[in-house]
Amino acid sequence: MHSHLAEEIQVGTPLEHRLALAQPEFRALLDRALDGREISVDEGERCLHADGGDLIALIATADAIRKRDVGDDVTYVVNRNLNFTNICFVGCRFCAFARQRWEADAFNQSIEAILAKVQQAVHLGATEICMQGGINPEMPAFTYRDILQAIKGAFPQIHMHAFSPMEIMYGSRRTDMSYRDYLQMLRDAGLGTIPGTAAEILDDEIREILSHKKVDVQTWIDIITTAHDLGIRSTSTVMYGHLETARHVAAHIALIRTLQRQTGGFTEFVPLRFIHDNTELFRQGLVGEPPPKGLYDLRVYATSRLMLQGAIDNLQTSWVKINHELAQLSLEAGCNDFGGTLMEESISREAGADAGEYTTVDEIRALISARGRRPVERTTLYDRREAAHEDTAVDGDGPGRRSGRREVSARPDPHC
Ligand code: SF4
User: Which of 75, 196, 228, 296 has the fewest Cβ atoms nearer than 10 Å?
Assistant: First the structure.
């Protein structure tokens, strides 16, 4: 499947040649996108149904817009995921990560254990800690603040990318603070940015089935926009491949675009494939066998690039969800960021993802280079850190190449 795809998405095939494969009405839509015109929800839905020649043309269009807007470099961040507890009462039916506290493999890490992991990550060159956890009912009210203060006290240089809107909602309830006051307190304790996870699909009917205790759409928006207003930027995500329709995905992307125009606070957009194994959703037959990896994923990436042009420049692939080979192909369907690698990515692994637990910096750079693109290390906020790799050639095989298995962590965690 992938080699067939790779043939279809041949690097170097002229854009005009691939556009000519589209049906006339779809070609007109793609031409509008290439002109920088806004793609509506209806048009986004049409893109998400593209097949055959239309799909090849869609992917080529996304690639051309990516090249025009952000160039050929592919960024990645050196970070570590830190899932400090898997104890959670929320009961999302798509989640294979959460445990009840009495289960044998439930965990709740001490501050000392957390600091040891951060220390290890810093030693390996991480610039960011991506931290999320389950919603633990026995957590002391100010735990999130206390963890931040402990980490930033010991490692002031590390960027803390932590706590989804679900965790912010829970923390603010536990402390009886407003979202604004709670976020301000976390910012003062060292919070840098927040993951825009817990979004899944921003549609309350779908959310009710996926997880009726989760933040609803308006609460998610309130927390994200309050954070942005306070200068706390966030990522944005969509989870696809479960109960949703193409229209839900298109409407979700359009909502993210609208919010971005209001706040400018999103740093990136990350489409996340739903990993069905070991989830209640799959066990109970609410979702069937997942669509095969490949065309389905590339459609979502390409449509995201078209719909978000002019609003969010950075489109991140998720090798954790779709594996290395397909993540490479997604670089030709609109993506310009490879995320990171995994040091402790227990969320997707629990759910049956197959891309392994971590990828080293060297591997990420090699995967990017193999598609003829230049890997560039970045910070959380997309500042470039080329100096760290200025001695490496495109494929990184020169004498100055960094050696060793410098492991980094993909983000954002999709579980919350
Ligand atoms: S997705 Fe997050 S909030 Fe939902 S059950 Fe899993 S850990 Fe809990």
Answer: 296
In angstroms, the CA 92 to CA 281 distance is 9
State if residue 30 touches ligand 1 by the CB under 6 angstroms criterion. no
Looking at the CA of residue 94, tell me the nearest atom of ligand 1: 1
Structure tokens at 351: 């759910």
Distant-in-sequence, close-in-space partners of 171: CB < 8 Å, separation ≥ 6: 141, 143, 144, 145, 163, 182, 186
All structural domains of the chain:
2-70 (no CATH), 74-408 (3.20.20.70)
Q: Which residues lie closer than 8 Å to 371 by C-beta, 6 or more apart?
A: 11, 328, 331, 332
Q: Which residues contact 264 (CB under 8 A, 6 or more apart)?
A: 228
- 212: CB partners within 8 A, 6+ apart: none
Task: Return the number of other C-beta atoms located less than 10 Å from residue 335's C-beta.
Answer: 30
Helices 143-154, 111-123: crossing angle, 10 deg rounding = 40
Nearest one of 141, 153, 76 to 114, comparing CA atoms = 153
pLDDT in tens, 344-364: 645 445 555 554 557 889 999
d(CA 148, CA 179): 17
Q: Cis check for the bond before 291: say yes or no (omega within 30 of 0).
A: no
| Most informative mutation of 83, 84, 85, 88 for ligand 1 (most atoms within 8 A of CB) | 88
pLDDT tens-place string over residues 168-225 = 999 999 999 999 999 999 999 999 999 999 999 999 999 999 999 999 999 999 999 9
DSSP string of 322-352? H-HHHHHHHTTTT--B-----SS-HHHHHTT
Residues in the chain: 416
User: What one-letter code names the amino acid at 84?
Assistant: F
Percent share of the chain, pLDDT over 70: 86
* Ligand 1 close to Cβ of residue 414 (< 6 A): no
Number of CB atoms found within 10 A of residue 76's CB? 23
Q: Give backbone dihedrals phi and psi of 45, rounded to 5 degrees, phi first.
A: -60, -40
> Which residue's C-alpha comes closest to atom 7 of ligand 1?
134
Tokens representing residue 281 in the block: 């959703």
Q: Over the range 360-383, which residues count as b (16 or more CB within 10 Å of their CB) and which as e? A: bbbbbbbbbbebebbbbbbbbebe
Q: What is the pTM of this model?
A: 0.92
How far is Cα 357 from Cα 40, in angstroms, rounded to an integer?
38
Any atom of ligand 1 within 6 Å of the Cβ of 196 = no
